[in-house]
Specification:
The structure holds two protein chains of two kinds. By secondary structure, chain A is of the alpha+beta class. Chain A is built from 27 helices and 51 strands. The model of chain B has no long low-confidence stretch (mean pLDDT 94). Classes of the chains: A alpha+beta, B alpha+beta.
Chain lengths: 1003, 195
């Protein structure tokens, strides 16, 4: 049974007990404990269930690579699934529950899968769930959805806050172990700007556990000395609890800082995502120990040897009383020696290598530990905990030579450098046969825009296992970085470290080497996804020879741990099955993030009121106070209608239209884009940008214009006013201002740079209000101050005038078919002017109307709307707008495209009006079916609805649509289909439904 | 001309919008006049004339120039933004128009198109770095240097008038967004503490 054997763990404060809950039971741990160490200290070994077979699982590692011990963490607004217990520090009041079991962790029905394991081989899902076809939708998918997933999905809104931070450094050093500290120290001394980050709460990495001395002092005093010097450098930033999660092009780097995951007090941001630009990233990310592949290697109580050592030294926690150590390298001896010296039993060290270990083995023997060379575990005895091991020859088939009682197993299959970050942006790896690991190929780093490498590695991440080599590498790298980035000349000595005499690691991808099928069936590679040796071998036999295919077929390395423990063992087994060298099989692609990051940190502060910028007109506040129903138009929010109490939106829209058509209404048109185009060549430029002629517009008048892309498609429309000889004011659609401004700038800067034209976006300088309806002139006359009679201000004219004391610009333009004025004032007085208009119009029952009334009224008049009648494939000719296309001009954007055969095809769908026979409203977007079917067996279509409304003016449904040869077919009845399949018949009519002569707007 | 750290108008009509839960003081400014100037900034003669007309030096690339009652910022290779008291805009705009009349140029009153915020406190640089993808470190972002950038999701321009004081302009329509964003970004408890 696991327990706390000592209160002197390196990372815990035994005088600070902490209470927390796991699966509803209260436990006590100490400040500094992880959830894993605290539960182990309380004798809890069984901590989770595996994904596929629901096998009992305990913690296997002590770090970010942990595949088994995942928990649902927190409650309600702070609930989060799939949190690694090995990386979660406990705090007062922490609550966690284990995952993936029903009804209880100790007794799980899902474990039946484990007994069915022989019927659930690799690719089972692909093979099984395809037959019979209908079963997928009704049986398989619901069942899989019910059982899939590890943790539960959060149900409440996230109660934490998050933020981003942008930072710039010469060098980012990732990893605060000895290599990282020394690299940062030496580089920092040169004065260049350095960021050093460490994923854990404390500095120094594994060396404080595994090594004796640096510079003749204990490792931790060396670490403290270095930290002191680093902290004194103003050019160096140090951050703990910050993980390097992603490397991207051009030295862009993501750091994931966890600010209060370890605290009971959740005030302040929980995570901060650092977006870092650096000239160089140094990967000092260390190495991860590999499990050993023997039968029963997943039973609770079987841990990585380094993890057993970590729990003992860091937290004073032993996994068992009697720990068997199995290894293929010298490193695991340290675990055995520490346990033995701490008074715990180590019945045997099984060294798979025939010739055994070096210096460390001699030391183990000297303190009385039995060491067996050439022996391995054939299988572990036990189900929910280790009861003993069967021992066999490492080269054999697994015949048991001896059974040894124990309650824990410490395994070490060698170490794999953490090369993830190196690989994210294309750094290459090379297989090192001597050390049996994939190491960064330093001759092929990820490269920047100049083709130069922007990453380096140092320490165990480079593949170094000896500390004396690591400090030498780090020192030299630090010096070269300082020189490279213009730091001052400095001298730094290589810290003194005594080398160890170690025997080389010997790969044993399967133990014993010729293990029988029965053993291979119980030998796990990927603990989280339950992928076994036999699954990989089956996949290889079935032809999945590429490691990428193998991964997807068996799910090896596809779980939340992304195969940090399983990848190398898995691909080695594949290489073995294919009889191919490991270097040829290669690894799967490493992609960011290195470890999971919260969704919240990606969003940063963008939530609630700052989720997205909402653009508001100067009159927005009034709309809010007057119950406007808003709709998004680009980033703007515009009133859709103003619903009175007890009124539906439809009723409100109808009321607004009838009021406007019969008397007068007001529209906040401030969101329309306003671009000033100015300069001696402004007219010439606008002739090129618009399809119609603008240069001959007289000062004081307006013209409706169309703009096309170079492919001839309609991109925007609006009214252009000539202000003076050199200046035009171009109105764009709402939300179109920025796009059209860019469009104009692009042509000016890339094609017509010789034209003397300035374009300035002044959309937000003005509030613009449309006063619309037969009584609009009367209303404005009540405000007084200027003559706006038909004679003084004709249709499509504008004037600058004082109106009721406001400095205004009045445009006599109409988008509704009524007598109408659009008046702009400076934004800061927009609301005052709006209120003045409301006051002046009270006698006429003036009321504001929203975008829906605007849409209905323009549709009644047959006016097109960009985005309704156009969708990026429509040319002006499709909309019968030939009158707005100048034939006199040599060129304009889109002119040549209009000459293409397809554009001139007489069969193009063209704009018409549509009137249903029964007066109903056609569904938006519905298609009219023609005769016959296409190659896919679908009905031919001959037209579609682009705008459709109920017209209160005409008291019937009206619509516009694009119909093949439409204008030639006026009077014909065509059939539109509803989603239900029901047919609606509609007559093709002229698109102008209301006041065809235009007499109402021209009074 | 020597740089005057803070123009008077940025002290005028400012309203503090932050409270004790913020670790910076955040202000919103009223009555700031703004004039957009479009001209050929390589025309030295025109620049000299403009300097005389406005009594302010012409800023070099990405810089601002200030006098006690005005500030002139470089916005792009052919654009400057002039700040003065709003009551002065008509007068100054006329002066500018007169000066530039025979040149291809454009000058517009844009006082209502943008809003002005300012930040005050010891950690101004780090709060900007939470929102803008620019290097705000002391050796990188100089005093008086104007950066047209983004603050989270909206376009903005920002410059430090002195070490602990930044001025920010953004478009009027996103005033509420930026106000909320600035206040959230300097909530006590979210200090980064790298500089």
């Amino acid at each position: 049974m696991s327990r706390r054997f000592s209160n002197k763990g390196r990372l815990i404060q035994a005088d600070k007990p902490i209470k927390f809950h796991f699966n509803g039971v209260q436990f006590t741990g100490y400040q500094g404990d992880t959830l894993a160490s605290a539960l182990l200290a309380n004798g809890k070994l069984l901590l989770g269930r595996s994904f596929k077979y629901h096998r009992p699982r305990g913690v296997v590692s002590s770090g970010p690579e942990e595949p088994n011990f995942l928990v649902n963490l927190g409650k309600d607004h702070f609930f989060e699934p799939n949190q690694r217990g090995t990386m979660t520090n406990i705090f007062e009041g922490l609550t966690a529950t284990s995952q993936n079991h029903f009804p209880a962790l100790e007794f799980d029905f899902g474990e039946i899968n484990s007994w069915l394991a022989r019927f659930l081989p690799a690719g089972f899902y692909y093979k099984m769930f395809i037959h019979p076809r209908p079963f997928w939708k009704y049986i398989y998918e619901p069942l899989i959805r019910m059982s899939a997933g590890l943790g539960q999905a959060p149900k409440e809104k996230d109660g934490s806050t998050y933020e981003h931070f942008h930072a710039f450094y010469d060098v980012v050093v990732v990893g605060g172990g000895i290599a990282g500290l020394q690299t940062a120290l030496v580089a920092g001394r040169s004065g260049i700007k350095v960021l050093l980050i460490e994923q854990l709460a404390s500095w120094g990495g594994r060396a404080q556990i595994d090594e004796d001395e640096i510079d003749d002092a204990p490792v931790n005093s060396w670490v403290n000395k270095v930290l002191e010097e680093l902290a004194s450098m103003p050019n160096v930033s140090l951050r703990t609890r910050m993980t390097g999660v992603g490397v991207y092009d051009h030295g862009y780097f993501l750091g994931y800082e966890q600010l209060n995951d370890h605290k009971a007090n959740k005030d302040g941001p929980r995570h901060r995502l650092w977006k870092i630009r650096s000239k160089l990233i140094v990967c000092c990310t260390g190495a991860i120990e590999r499990p050993v592949s023997f039968a029963g290697n997943d039973i609770p109580g079987v841990l990585l040897a380094s993890a057993v050592r970590d729990y003992a030294i860091n937290f004073g926690v032993s996994i068992g009383q009697k720990t068997v150590v199995i290894t293929n390298n010298d490193d695991a001896y340290k675990t055995a020696i520490f346990l033995k010296e701490s008074g715990l039993e180590v019945p045997v060290i099984l060294d798979a290598r025939e010739h055994g270990g070096g210096e460390a083995a001699a030391r183990a023997r000297a303190i009385g530990i039995r060491v067996e060379n050439g022996k391995v575990i054939s299988r572990v005895i036990g189900r929910k905990r280790v009861l003993g091991v069967n021992v066999c020859l490492s080269s054999g088939e697994g015949e048991t030579t001896e059974r040894i009682g124990c309650d824990a197993v410490a395994m070490s299959g060698g170490w794999s450098p953490v090369v993830h970050l190196w690989s994210h942006c294309g750094g290459k790896l090379e297989w090192n046969d001597e050390s049996s690991m994939f190491c960064p190929d330093k001759s092929r780093p990820p490269t920047n825009e100049n083709g130069e490498g922007f990453m380096e590695t140092a320490g165990a991440a480079s593949g170094n296992t000896q500390l004396n080599e690591i400090v030498k590498e780090a020192t030299e790298l630090g010096l070269s970085i300082g020189r490279k980035f213009g730091g001052k000349q400095i001298r730094s000595n290589v810290p003194k470290v005594k080398p160890h005499l170690e025997n080389p690691v010997e790969p044993f991808w399967l133990t014993p080497r010729k293990a029988k099928r029965k053993l291979r069936n119980k030998t796990f590679l990927d603990f989280q996804n339950d992928v076994k040796i036999s699954d990989v071998e089956l996949a290889a036999r079935e032809g999945f020879e590429s490691v990428e295919h193998l991964k997807r077929y068996t799910t090896l390395g596809m779980a939340t741990d992304q195969g940090k423990l399983s990848n190398i063992n898995g691909l080695a087994v594949l290489a073995n099955a294919l009889d191919s060298p490991i270097s040829k099989v290669g690894t799967t692609t490493f992609r960011p993030p290195y470890t999971p990051v919260s969704m919240g940190s990606i969003a940063g502060s963008a939530r609630d009121s700052v989720f997205q910028p909402v653009r508001m007109s100067p009159i927005h506040g009034w709309h809010v106070e007057h119950d406007a129903v808003f709709e998004p138009v680009g980033f703007w929010r515009r009133p859709y209608c103003f619903a009175k109490k007890g009124e539906t939106t439809e009723q409100a829209v109808n009321r607004e239209i009838l009021q406007t058509r019969s008397s007068v209404g007001m529209l906040d048109a401030s969101t329309l884009g306003k671009l000033i185009v100015s300069g001696p060549d402004a007219g010439k430029f606008l002739d090129l940008v618009y399809t119609n002629m603008m240069s001959n517009l007289t000062i004081g008048t307006c013209r409706y214009g169309l703009m096309c892309s170079e492919n001839g498609f309609l991109i925007d429309d609006g009214v252009v006013a000539r202000i003076d000889e050199n200046t035009f004011l171009c109105h764009t659609t709402t939300g179109g201002a920025e796009r059209i401004h860019s469009h104009m700038e692009e042509w000016l800067q890339t094609e017509w740079w010789d034209l003397q034209v300035f374009v300035q976006n002044i959309t937000e300088q003005y509030a613009q209000i449309a006063v619309v309806g037969p009584n609009s002139r009367k209303l404005l006359n009540k405000l007084g101050g200027t003559d706006i009679s038909k004679e003084a201000l004709g249709f499509m004219e504008w004037t600058d005038a004082l109106l009721g004391g406001f400095q205004t610009r009045i445009f006599r333009i109409s988008f509704s078919g009524e007598l109408s004025f659009e008046i702009s004032v400076e934004a800061s007085v927009g609301l005052d002017f709006w209120n003045a208009l409301l006051d002046a119009g009270s006698d006429y029952g003036v009321m504001p109307y929203g975008t829906e009334a605007l849409h209905v009224m323009r549709a009644e008049k047959g006016f097109i709307m960009i985005g309704d009648e156009t969708d990026g494939t429509i040319i002006p000719q499709d909309l019968n707008l030939n009158w707005a296309i100048s034939k006199k001009k040599n060129d304009f954007i889109g002119k040549r495209a209009h000459e293409r055969i397809f554009m001139r095809n007489p069969d193009r769908w063209k704009l018409v009006g549509l009137e249903t026979l029964d007066g109903s409203v056609l569904p938006d977007g519905s298609y009219a079916a023609g005769a016959g079917h296409n190659l896919n067996g679908q009905k031919h279509t001959i037209g579609r609805v682009t705008s459709t409304y109920f017209s209160p003016t005409l008291n019937r449904g009206i619509a516009m649509g694009l119909v093949q040869n439409g204008p030639d077919r006026v009077g014909e009845v065509i059939k539109f289909e509803k989603i239900s399949g029901e047919i609606v018949e509609a007559t093709i009519v002229d698109p102008v439904f209301y006041d065809k002569s235009g007499s109402k707007q021209n009074v | 001309m020597t740089k005057v750290a803070v123009s008077k108008m940025f002290n005028h009509s400012k309203i503090q919008i932050s409270d004790e839960t913020n670790y910076l003081k955040v202000f919103q400014h009223r009555d700031v006049g703004m004039i957009t100037l479009r001209l050929d900034l390589e025309n030295q003669l025109l620049k000299r004339k403009l300097r005389h007309a406005l009594g302010i030096s012409m800023p070099s690339v990405r810089q601002t120039e200030a006098t006690t009652d005005a500030l002139l910022g470089w916005m792009s290779p052919d654009e400057l933004l002039y700040f003065c008291m709003k009551s002065e805009v008509v007068n100054r705009l006329n002066r500018v128009k007169e000066t530039m009349t025979s040149y291809h140029s454009l000058s517009l009153d844009v006082s209502d198109a943008r809003v002005v915020f300012s930040l005050e406190g010891g950690k101004v640089r780090e709060v900007i770095a939470k929102l803008a993808p620019i290097d705000t470190a002391i050796n990188s972002l100089e005093l008086g240097e104007i950066r047209r950038t983004r603050l989270s999701q909206v376009a903005a321009a920002i410059w430090l008038t002195e070490e602990n004081r930044a001025t920010i302009i953004c478009f009027r329509s996103v005033e509420k967004y930026l106000r909320d964003l600035l206040l959230i970004s300097c909530k006590k408890g979210s200090e980064v503490g790298v500089w």
